[in-house]
Specification:
By secondary structure, the protein is an alpha+beta fold. The protein has three domains: 85 residues, Roll (PH-domain like); 104 residues, Pleckstrin-homology domain (PH domain)/Phosphotyrosine-binding domain (PTB) (PH-domain like), CATH 2.30.29; 68 residues, Orthogonal Bundle (Arc Repressor Mutant, subunit A).
């Protein structure tokens, strides 16, 4: 290995390239071999040779659960996009390898952070500041130059959108990440290189995907959800939306069943789950 390069993982597994130069391949055939990860590159070694993928070229990571019958020889995998190419890898211990891969890609990366960019649905006048990323299990720790600290827990992320915006007089890629702080919905915006921001969004979107829900809400349920999203106390909801206490409590029960709310202490105290904030955020955008 080159100077400064450190091996992080060396495991057996399978891999296959499913998209080459932007075109899907029909002859999908898993190759067994070694999957080697360093702090600079990913190396796939089989009887047919060796393929090297620089970490700096990886633009997104998705996958985990197999949903394609054509690749049903493995139960889970990671999908790596490198420009117009997509490669699937299935290491033996996928969770441990995935953690090391994200750490190699994101740990100690310097980015620009605007926090909070949005709070309770209201745009804030926060300034962009330098920050440093660190992966800690299923969360991203953001240390900001001014001394503040932001923790983005994957299971708490309601959405993670990628946009191109003006950041310090330049057009840059921005990840807009919705999460909560002390029960209030906030957005933290993170800007950096295209690959760094895309990989960060891939990491936190695991929570967004887990929070997806297909449910039709009534007008009254939407009113309660929107009130909670904008910061109204659960105890003040009946007066705020003009409903009887019993009706609001029935709505709470239904939203808890949907996985949109979770009970906190008493029957009438609740807080939004990630999927609830995602639904409410979309409703705000539609207004």
């Amino acid at each position: 290995m080159s100077d400064g390069e450190q091996k992080l993982a060396d495991t057996n597994g399978k891999f296959v390239q499913v998209v080459k130069d932007g075109r899907k391949r029909n002859d999908i055939d898993w190759r067994a071999g070694r999957i080697i990860l360093s702090n600079k590159r990913l190396v796939l070694v089989s009887n047919e040779g060796k393929r090297t993928i620089p970490l700096s070229k990886i633009t997104s990571i998705t996958g985990r659960d197999n949903v394609n019958k054509a690749i049903a020889k493995v139960s889970g995998y990671l999908s790596l996009q490198v420009g117009p190419n997509v490669t699937l890898i299935a290491p033996q211990d996928i969770e441990a390898f995935e953690a090391k891969l994200y750490s190699a890609l994101l740990d100690q990366t310097v980015v620009l952070v605007k926090h909070p960019a949005v709070e309770g649905g209201v745009v804030q006048d926060s300034e962009w500041e330098k920050g440093r990323l660190k992966i800690d299990g299923d969360s991203v720790d953001l240390a900001i130059a001014s001394g503040s600290f932001v923790e983005l827990e994957v299971e708490d992320v309601g959405s993670a959108e990628l946009e191109t915006k003006t950041v310090m007089d330049s057009q840059r890629r921005v990840a807009e990440i919705e999460h909560t702080i002390e029960g209030t919905s906030v957005e933290t915006h993170v800007s950096g290189s295209k690959s760094d921001v895309s990989v960060l969004a891939s990491f936190v979107r695991r929570g967004e995907q887990a929070g997806e829900v297909d449910v039709e809400l009534s007008k009254e349920e939407n009113e309660v959800l929107m009130a909670l999203y904008t910061g109204v106390s659960p105890f003040q909801i009946p007066d705020f939306v003009g409903m009887e206490i019993e009706q609001v409590e029935e709505i709470y029960d239904r939203l808890i069943e949907y996985g949109i709310l979770e009970p906190v202490r008493t029957r009438r105290e609740v807080q939004l789950e990630a999927r609830g904030r995602s639904i409410a955020g979309e409703a705000v955008d539609d207004q």
